[in-house]
């Protein structure tokens, strides 16, 4: 079973590229971030034409997450995170699908830092941790994947000095991410690529894609019950180089069936 994540950076603008990727790679589950559309504008019919059923949590012009499944409809468990009733950002969607708990996240960017946006990012990460602890307590096969907007270590960026002042690399962001791992979650890409050098994002500016000036911010964290079944994982890098592509590349994780 393959589960993937893709920050699509505007589902309407990238729909041809998204459908192309789905048909070429056929993940069982695909989590999308930055769909940037209200709920009524989500193109569910286009996915159903190729066999995918979806649930989504939209927002006008910004944010937005969705979970697609091949041949079945994900069973929604939760949308949004508890802890801040005034937080109306569409950044979290959780469902059960194919016997697996799947949480799709679009973590706040946090720039500029220091400031209110960075403070919100850190609060959101703590709220996420609380939800992940609750999932872990259920002892179910689970994956929390998406755009974390955190570069975990220096080996996850083409040049640490270039991003040193960015919210994605601040010690507080990294510490909050590291706490998720100490809670027992496995960073799948890092585990399979201990040397680093794997990018999932390349900015549109300054020829970043052409120069391979990227970094890793799209992650999949696995519960122990699912980590034991991980066979392979990777980045569909070539999709970043296609016409009118997202600035992120899809990331996928493949799991052995339950024995």
TrEMBL record:
Write the Enzyme Commission number(s) for this entry: 3.1.11.2
Cofactor field: Mg(2+)
Which key words are in the record? Hydrolase, Magnesium, Metal-binding
Name the source's superkingdom. Answer: Bacteria
- Output the CDD domains linked to this UniProt entry: ExoIII-like_AP-endo
| All residue ranges annotated as the Endonuclease/exonuclease/phosphatase domain in the record | 4-248
Q: GO molecular-function annotation terms?
A: double-stranded DNA 3'-5' DNA exonuclease activity
- Pfam families, per the entry: Exo_endo_phos
What the record says about family reads:
Belongs to the DNA repair enzymes AP/ExoA family.
Q: Which NCBIfam families match?
A: exoDNase_III, xth
Please give the name of this protein. Exodeoxyribonuclease III
Q: Native species of this protein? A: Novosphingobium aquiterrae
